[in-house]
Specification:
The chain is mainly alpha-helical and 57 residues long. The protein contains three helices and no strands. It has one domain. This is Transposase Helix-turn-helix domain-containing protein.
Length: 57
């Protein structure tokens, strides 16, 4: 596996954290110890598969 590319579970968690918090992509990437571009690719690739819906209040 190339440097900066985590396991699938870590990338799914990144996308969920990014979607459910007010963190910017840069902040989420820093939290997971990856670059903003790697985080952006994970979000772009995985978000459609996760079918994230808005929180119901």
């Amino acid at each position: 596996m190339r440097a900066g590319h985590g396991v699938l579970e870590d990338r799914v968690l990144l996308v969920a954290v990014y979607d459910r918090t007010n963190l910017t992509l840069r902040q989420a990437a820093l939290l997971f110890g990856i670059s903003k571009s790697v985080a952006g690719r994970a979000v772009d690739h995985l978000a459609p598969y996760l079918v994230l819906s808005p929180l119901r209040r």
